TrEMBL record:
Annotated coiled-coil segments of the chain: none
Domain of life: Bacteria
Entries under SUPFAM superfamilies matching the protein: Acyl-CoA N-acyltransferases (Nat)
Keyword presence, Transferase: yes
Name of this chain's protein: BH0988 protein,N-acetyltransferase
Annotated Pfam families: Acetyltransf_1 (PF00583)
Gene3D superfamilies: 3.40.630.30
Keywords, ordered alphabetically: Transferase
Organism: Thermobacillus xylanilyticus
Residue intervals of the N-acetyltransferase domain: 6-194
């Protein structure tokens, strides 16, 4: 087998040791948003690793290392289970309080969607594996294999690269909502998209 072949697998079957690897990729992907807590990537990964819900995540693994992550949550499970006390111990009272308030709604997805809808979130690629098709492979695999009838997601209005990917995969925009704390987060609107099906239509 070619050592460079990438494999997509559910995180739930990978054991506890992979959690921090996934957290490092999470930090890589969202460092701009997380860096106000700490510029130290290892510190961020140590704090968020226990909050990752392995039952919601899928991993892209290449050469034995996690190079990409994608979460698919639903009405009954969250991808990231925010822990206020852990955040306080890791980042101090002031920063953790601000972060918890801003992030609380970020990781409670899909509550308004009907049963059977998967909510795509936390899509991230390690800095060393960018622009190598990792996110596309993860999304395609999850849409084929996750046990949902339909899918939804949201993204920042400034994230044009992700928007191109979701357009290509057949997601369609359903609405836009002005973002609370937009000035802090660095974007004005959150774009909501839904995937009605049609796997054979992918390009």
């Amino acid at each position: 087998m070619n050592a460079d072949v990438m494999e997509i697998r559910p995180m739930s079957g990978c054991g506890e040791s992979v959690r921090r690897e996934a957290a490092l990729v999470f930090v890589d992907g969202f460092y701009r948003e997380l860096s106000f807590l700490s510029p130290d990537r290892d510190r961020l990964a140590d704090a968020f690793a226990p909050m990752i819900n392995p039952d919601a995540f899928w991993l892209a693994v290449r050469n034995g290392a996690v190079v990409g992550i994608l979460a698919c949550s639903d009405r009954t499970k969250q991808a990231i289970r925010l822990d206020r006390e852990r955040m306080r111990k890791s980042f101090g009272l002031l920063k953790s309080s601000i972060a918890y308030r801003v992030m609380k709604g970020e990781f409670v997805k899909g509550k308004w969607y009907p049963e059977g809808t998967g909510y795509i979130e936390c899509v991230a690629t390690s800095s060393a594996a960018r622009r190598q098709g990792v996110a596309s492979a993860l999304l395609r695999f999850v849409l084929q294999h996750a046990p949902y009838r339909r899918y939804a997601l949201d993204l920042m209005d400034t994230n044009t690269e992700a928007r191109r990917l979701y357009d290509k995969m057949g997601f369609v925009e359903s609405k836009r909502v002005r973002e609370p704390f937009g000035r802090i987060k660095g974007f004005k609107e959150r774009v909501f998209m839904e995937w009605p099906g049609g796997k054979s239509d992918w390009k």
